[in-house]
Structure to design on (426 residues):
């Protein structure tokens, strides 16, 4: 039977020019290889394998119980009051941040919060400044029809922005988007560096007239409970209390409790802005499911259990990151063209494979970073995301390795595969 050619229907310019997630595309290719039976260590996606990192048992039981109790109708648009109270107490207890429940908005994971912040603060054509590599700021900028200014950070700064990098670009900017611990790098903003950036924001706002829209800061701290070693999470409002008027925090259950599919996120900030965000999200309908909200409230109130679960989660993630970090460091010491940055937080490790110009055992010269990514996939069985997917230039040799799907016993195998693949290069 003859099929009609698909008709191309006109859509909005915004939709027409929106690009999908680069990482999800890459992960799709990796999954296809795995489905064909190929052995691949898939360290691409910033998610957890529930068999390796299940959600806490207590949270699981609470969710099941909430559904059994019939918590299945609409939740309030700003989130269940007991959950906002529990989040408020959690932030005060663990981070020393005092935000009352009216300053907190619950949503279906952290993404709708980010979308709502952009929609609330950005007018079409406004400038949004964000460092790269970073996660998805380009897409939220596009959705809000702002103009993104991506500033390249340096490996010697742990790929973190500095006041010197940002200073020339904040005049007239609407939004500065920061994230720590950072996806994709697993590094953090240090208190001194963050304080200097806050001072720039405060100075810019002191310069603006009372009728002008201020310069706001998104502070995405979705990974903040996962910091390792001596690293402590820093935030703008603790460092500079005057930043409270200008800071919108992004946070939630997804990463702290390996609960990416549970879809409970929250934002907090000035109540008047939070109220606007709530109004926007109420039309989008991006609520977290009511049963999950009720369950998360019960769970978060059990302080000892929560602390124990976070400690356990941290230990598991850190063991994998440190194992890989030490292994790659050994390769550097042995003369392989590998560099690795010490992990400080989140579930990511930053590694550079500068293999361009090398020749494989089969005589192929690795010319581009695309060739290197393919070589690592085919010869080292390692699927990882190049920093180009996070806004770095196409010749960047840096990669993100995500450990949320890695089993303990796989760390050694992954390293052995990589070393064997590197050893064949000439
Ligand atoms: C930095 C950062 N912020 C926010 C999110 C979104 O989290 P959620 O799954 O809760 O929407 C992610 C998820 O990968 C992330 O890496």
């Amino acid at each position: 039977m003859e099929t009609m050619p698909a008709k191309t229907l006109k859509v909005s310019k915004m939709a027409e020019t929106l690009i999908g997630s680069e990482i999800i595309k890459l992960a799709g290719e990796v999954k296809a290889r795995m489905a064909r039976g190929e052995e691949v260590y898939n360290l691409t996606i910033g998610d957890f394998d529930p068999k390796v990192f299940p959600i806490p048992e207590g949270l699981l039981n609470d969710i099941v119980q909430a559904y059994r109790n019939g918590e299945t109708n609409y939740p309030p648009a700003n989130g269940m009051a007991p959950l906002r109270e529990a989040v408020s107490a959690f932030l005060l207890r663990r981070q020393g941040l005092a935000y009352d429940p009216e300053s907190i908005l619950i949503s279906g994971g952290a993404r709708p919060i980010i979308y709502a912040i952009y929609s609330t603060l950005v007018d079409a054509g406004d400038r949004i400044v964000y460092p790269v590599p970073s996660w998805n700021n380009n897409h939220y900028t596009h959705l809000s029809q702002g103009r993104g200014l991506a500033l390249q950070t340096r490996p010697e700064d742990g790929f973190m922005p500095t006041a010197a990098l940002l200073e020339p670009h904040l005049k007239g900017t609407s939004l500065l988007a920061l994230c720590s611990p950072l996806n994709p790098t697993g590094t953090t903003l240090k208190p001194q560096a963050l304080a200097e950036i806050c001072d720039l924001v405060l100075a810019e706002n002191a310069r603006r007239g009372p009728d002008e829209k201020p310069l706001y800061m998104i502070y995405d701290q979705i990974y903040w409970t996962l910091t390792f070693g001596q690293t402590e999470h820093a935030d703008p409002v603790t460092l500079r209390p005057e930043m409270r008027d200008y800071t919108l925090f992004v946070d939630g259950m997804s990463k702290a409790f390996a609960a990416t599919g549970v879809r409970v996120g929250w934002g907090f900030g000035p109540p008047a802005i939070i109220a606007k965000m709530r109004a926007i999200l109420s039309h989008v309908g991006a609520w977290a499911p009511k049963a999950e909200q009720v369950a998360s409230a019960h769970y978060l109130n059990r302080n000892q259990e929560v602390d124990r679960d976070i400690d356990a989660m941290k230990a598991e993630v850190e063991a994998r990151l440190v194992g890989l970090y030490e292994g790659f460091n050994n390769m550097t010491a042995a003369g392989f063209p590998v560099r690795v940055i010490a992990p400080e937080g989140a579930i990511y490790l930053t590694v550079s494979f500068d293999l361009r110009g090398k020749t494989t055992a089969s005589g192929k010269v690795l010319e581009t970073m695309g060739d290197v990514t393919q070589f690592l996939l085919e010869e080292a069985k390692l699927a990882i995301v190049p920093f180009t997917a996070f806004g770095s230039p196409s010749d960047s040799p840096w990669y993100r390795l995500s450990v949320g799907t890695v089993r303990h016993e796989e760390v050694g195998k992954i390293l052995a595969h990589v070393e064997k693949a590197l050893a064949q290069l000439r």
About this structure: The mean pLDDT is 96. Residues 341 and 419 are 18 Å apart (CA to CA).
